[in-house]
Amino acid sequence: MAEIYINGQPCVVEDHVTVLDAARQLGLFLPTLCKMENRSAIGACRLCVVEIEGARTLQVACATPVRDGMEIFTQSRRVREARQMIVELLLSEHCGDCQTCERSGDCELQDIAREMGIREVRFEGERLPCEIDDSTPALIRDSGKCIKCRRCVTVCGDTQAVGALFPQGRGFDTRIGPAFSMDLDEVPCVQCGQCAAVCPVGAITERDHIDGVWEALQDEKKHVVVQTAPAIRAALGECFGYEAGTLVTGKMTSALRMLGFDGVFDTNFTADLTIMEEGTELLNRLKKALVDHAQVALPMFTSCSPGWIRFAEFFYPNFLPNLSTCKSPQQMFGAVAKTYYAKKMGIPAEDLTVVSVMPCTAKKFEAQRSEMNDSGVQDVDYVLTTRELAEMIQSAGIDFKSLKNGKMDAPMGLSSGAADIFANTGGVMEAAIRTAYELVTGRPLPMDNLHVQPVIGLEGIKEAALKIENPLPEWAFLDGVEMRVAVAHGLNNARKVMEAIKSGYKTYHFVEVMTCPGGCIGGGGQPRFTDDSVRLKRINAIYQEDEGKELRTSHNNPQVAQIYKEFLGEPLGERSHHLLHTHYMPAKCPSD
């Protein structure tokens, strides 16, 4: 332990913490634009400078460890003037027009400048040319707004292990972006949007689909339906002043109706459908391996997360046969809506517009993939992030907090609690285990505290094993088999799991991978700023949603049973295989 003094106030802290952490323990706010939770400090923005007794120069608090007896001053005149000058210099190079920037009101640089009382910028000088990179379906980069904080570099390289963004050049000429000033579509970018989620300004944003959705809603010839992912209901409220993790499912449904959608549905319905297809696929693979002794691609990997799919296509093409052939719930919904629902409503598929509300920017990329048109037209037309939906609600003048709770429409509005937990890391795995175990044994899955505890939480890689005993006769070959599963969230953790499997160090039957930290609740399109405390609140809210439902297993959803009876036939049947499954190919960049 070290005894230190911050602004004359004594404080005892562990001797390995930084001055920034020590100040926060005292409830002192030190501004920073580059520091990220659980990541090593790089001191790029210099905003957290403090004065330390005996030091000749100001020190960056995020990268300076405390020592016993240290005297620190966080608000001396020298410190305040230095911070103000740093912000003014950042603003002098920043090409943002706050009147039209979409991050206005949600911009950390703007907030810090306001808090420091900066009303004018004293410095005028040369600026680097602004370059717009709109080469990908999901993200747009504006180099003129970049303040070189390197957060995007950190999250892309460390958290996601993709490394699509780098600092290039030195000093004033430094640029942040893909190597050799290429566009994002020329490098292995998975379009997860974590860079946009951590960017403090408007240098990286999602591609806006709002105008297209408004145009469709105002087209009298179009029948426009919307589906909402499970993660949205635990995060949308944050855009309207609610505490993180507040469930706003009913208010969200009412708001969507007021926006003019002809049908308001739940992606959870097709999450239940996904479990039926994916669970059947896993059991079939196991049967081929254990009974027929055939060469089967195991472990099987989940395929719900489009950023993870793209990551596998770029970096692990040899494992593509291991991916489940199931489309994501978003794409399953689009395919079913433009066939089953369109037929029920008597609407030509080309006159039906499907809008998704997703926590993920990569869903925008997924929707326009060439594989996603098995309905005969593009299955999903537009994808809105949580932030975009909030913007639409606000621009329509809807008083969100005053709305009464609405209900989703039938026949694709009923879902199980297992579908809700798709939003959380470990959720897809738990939902699959609940159904697979009951189908194989005829008994409900035994769970501690209503959940499969080993796959819950924010640990980067989680493992579990489940021994199958006394299965039903048709599954006798599984008697005594210990099912080994793994869960990874964040692509750096996914890479660790892949390398462990590749080397033979680990063997599993089934692996869940989610692209974003915490799963979909921490997606690149969720309200900013997302740290672990926010992730945990959203995760707990999703579990509450699940636990509050009488129906908690996908195979017991009566509307899922109905769609199989009326339209799909059976899991992995001819029609479901055509509409709900796909295959992926190795990806190459134009620069390769």
Give the low-confidence spans: none
The CATH superfamily of the largest domain is Fe-only Hydrogenase (Larger Subunit), Chain L, domain 3
Give the helix/strand class: alpha/beta
Tell me what portion of residues adopts beta-strand conformation.
Answer: 5-15%
Backbone shape: globular
Lateral arrangement of strands in the main beta sheet: 2-1-5-3-4
CATH topology of the largest domain: Fe-only Hydrogenase (Larger Subunit), Chain L, domain 3
Average pLDDT confidence is 94
- Counted up, domains total 4
Helical region count?
18
> How can the largest sheet be summarized?
5 strands, mixed
Helix content: 25-40%
Tell me the radius of gyration: 25 Å
In words, what does this structure look like?
There is one protein chain. By secondary structure, the chain is an alpha/beta fold. It folds into 4 domains: 2-75, Ubiquitin-like (UB roll) (Roll), CATH 3.10.20.740; 123-206, Alpha-Beta Plaits; 210-269 and 330-402, Rossmann fold (3-Layer(aba) Sandwich); 274-326 and 415-580, Fe-only Hydrogenase (Larger Subunit), Chain L, domain 3 (3-Layer(aba) Sandwich). 33% of the residues lie in helices and 13% in strands. The chain contains 18 helices and 18 strands. It has helices at 19-25, 77-93, 108-115, 151-159, 194-198, 210-217, 249-259, 267-290, 306-315, 329-345, 362-367, 386-395, 417-420, 427-441, 491-503, 532-547, 558-568, 574-580, and strands at residues 2-6, 9-13, 49-52, 59-60, 71-73, 132-133, 139-142, 166-168, 175-177, 204-206, 223-228, 263-266, 300-301, 352-358, 382-385, 461-467, 482-489, 510-514. The strands form 5 sheets. A 5-stranded mixed sheet has the order 2-1-5-3-4, with helices on both faces. Strand 3 (49-52) and strand 4 form a beta hairpin. Helix 8 (267-290) crosses helix 10 (329-345) and helix 8 crosses helix 14. The model has no long low-confidence stretch (mean pLDDT 94).
